[in-house]
Structure formats: structure tokens, C-alpha cells
Amino acid sequence: MRLQYLCHIIYLMELISLARQIYMLYSWRTYISLGSVEWTPPDGIKCANVRVCLEPARRTSMNEISIVGLDLAKNVFQIHGAGPDGSVALRKKLNRGRLLEFFAKLPICVVAMEACASAHYWGREIGKLGHEIRLINPSYVKPFVKRQKNDAADAEAIAEAASRPTMRFVSVKSAEKQASSMAFKVRDLLVRQRTQTVNALRGHLMEYGLIVPQGLKNVSLLHEQIATHPDLPEVAKMLCKGLLEQVMFLSQQIVVLEKELRIRARQDDLASRLMTIPGVGAICATAIEALAPSAETFSKGRDFAAWIGLTPKQNSSGGKDRLGKVSKMGQRDLRRLLVLGATAVVRWARRYGAPGGAWLARMLSKKPPKLVAVALANNLARIAWALMSSGGVYQAPASGAA
């Protein structure tokens, strides 16, 4: 009995040693696979014999990489390469100067990135090398991150998300289209800076009992009031004059930029056709042309309106549709411009009257004006997609609806 007990102890010790060897092999990240483990049960006083057969696992080579997940950064980029079966083929960090050199030597494959800062630039540069570029919304990548977040996990999640057959991708913008988008965004920045400066000026003057009426047109009348105000110290007068000069300078820059946008809108075929839609001016048409993807991205106008965020949010379940407010999940700049244009159309219709029997007249008779403006913005988005996809100009319905 004592000898059998000793044999059992030796058998357990050999199993523990085997487990330790397997753990060490995997902790060293050696690419091996456990072929077979065989043993003979104790027979009488004989001890168990443990035999392990280790077979080297086949590693995916560089030539077999089908998709690369690229985590973008300013200086150090993380790369994750995977084979057709999803097996890991490459994990690597590269400096900015070596990135294009690496992809130039890599066989043609799919390169996926998050649609974030500098993504369109790298998409154009890597695309010139022959690779297929896939840009993904960062919110679609987040569910694929496993446990802790780091650069390597992000790159792996990007590759995993891009390999999904139902994933939605962002088209790479050309340098010219990005320049048009930049012109619109710079104008928007100047408008915000002017509004901030005006609000600061009104707040400072309120501390001295000088109330400035709302509206940009009233700010230009402040020069004389500031100069003649009895309770305003000289230092405050100097500072307020500086803010006024800044407001005037920003207004001049905005006028120059808007003039340039109108010239571009008249010269561009798509923007000029979009301007025939009621409520769509030069700035809105230029923004649609610069910020919206190609019409082929959407199968119908409702999809384009949903991308902008002008469709109701759903909370449906059990076969019952529950629709709420607009989702506001899309391109907020286009949504804001379309709602502003629709608000102008609704204001004009309420003042001068919409044609009898028209959709706008029926909506205004039973719905609040703001709700009608959002609904009209949805219609404007669908009309814009129709002009983008099929060409032509806007033609009002026979009923005369706006």
C-alpha cells in the first residue's frame, strides 16, 4: 500500500511538472500546439508514464496577411495583421517616418483605420500603394475591444470590426473635398468666435449699467456710447474698444469667406443644383457638397436623412413601433443648416401663407411651427439626395407645396 501511495504521488508530481512546462511554453509566446498527451494508468506497483508530443503550430506568414488594423497616432502607430482565418500574423509598432515604407513592402491587402484625425490623409497615401482602405466610425470599433484598452487592443479591434460583412465604412475624402470642408468649418469657427466676443462685451458693459440690445446690428452702435459713458473708466473703454475692433475684424473675415463660398457654389454643378431647393442657400449647398458622402452610399433618401440625424429615434419591441424625437446622431452641421433653412421657409409660409392643399399648409394647420420645421428639414434632405443621385434641379409639385 505504501508503494502504491508513493507511485500515485510521483504520478501527480509528473502531471504538475507537465502543466508547468505547458504554462512556460505559452508564457514565452512560443508558437506551438499540444499534439497529444498519453499516459498509462497505474497497474499494480507500476508507476504512470507520461509522454507529451509537442508539434509546432503553423504561423501565418507576411504574404498571407489579408487585413491590417492600423491604430493612428501622432508619432507611434500600432499595427495588427491577421490572416484570412483571423489568426494573428503581425503585431508591430512603427514610427511615423517608417509607416509608408512598411506598407510599400507589404503585399496588397485591406487596411482598416478609425475615421479620426488624419485618417483621410493616411487613407489617401496608403491607398496610392494599392491597398484597399476601410475607414470605420470609432463607435463601431469600441464593442470589439477585449477587456483592457491599449494601442494593441485597439488595432486588433479595428481589424476585427473591418472584417465583419455588415460593417459600415466611411469613404476616403479627396484633398479638394477636404479643402471645401475646411472653408465651411473655418467660417463656422469665425462665427462662433464673433458670438463669444459679442457676449463677452455685453457682459462687461452690463457691470457698468450699459445694457446692449441683442443682435449683431446693435453692436456697431456702441462706439459712441462707450466713448460718452460717464461711469466707464478709461481702462474699460480701451478694452471694450479692442473687443469692438475684434468683432468688426471677424465680421469682415466672415463676409469675405461667405463671398468665396457663394462663388464656389455657383461654379460647382452639384451645389448650384442644390440651391434650387427652397430653404437651401449657398452655404448649405456648399456644406452638403463638402461634408456628405457620395449619393451611392445610401439606397434611398430616408437613409440620407437618417445619416444627418433627422429621422425619429426608435424604441420598438414586440412587433410594435415606438418612434420618438429625431435621433440627432448624424452630421450635426448639415442638420443645423437644414433646420435653419426649413425654419426660414416655415416663417415665410406663416407670414404670406402657403398654397392651399400643400403639404406645408396642412402641417402648419395642425402642428407647432418648430415641429413642422424639423419635418420640412427631413424632406429637404431627401430632396437633396434625389438631386445628388439622379441629377437635375428641384421642381415644385403641381400642388405648389414648398
Automatic annotation (TrEMBL):
A single Gene Ontology MF term assigned here is: transposase activity
Q: What is an annotated GO biological process for this record, any one?
A: DNA transposition
Residues in Transposase IS110-like N-terminal domain copies: 68-208
Is Coiled coil given among the entry's keywords? no
Report whether Metal-binding shows up as a keyword of the record: no
InterPro entries documented for this protein: Transp_IS110-like_N, Transpos_IS110, Transposase_20
Q: Which residues form the Transposase IS116/IS110/IS902 C-terminal domain?
A: 272-349
Top-level taxonomic group = Bacteria
- What NCBIfam families does this protein's entry cite? transpos_IS110
Q: What is this protein called?
A: Transposase
The species this protein belongs to is Rhizobium leguminosarum
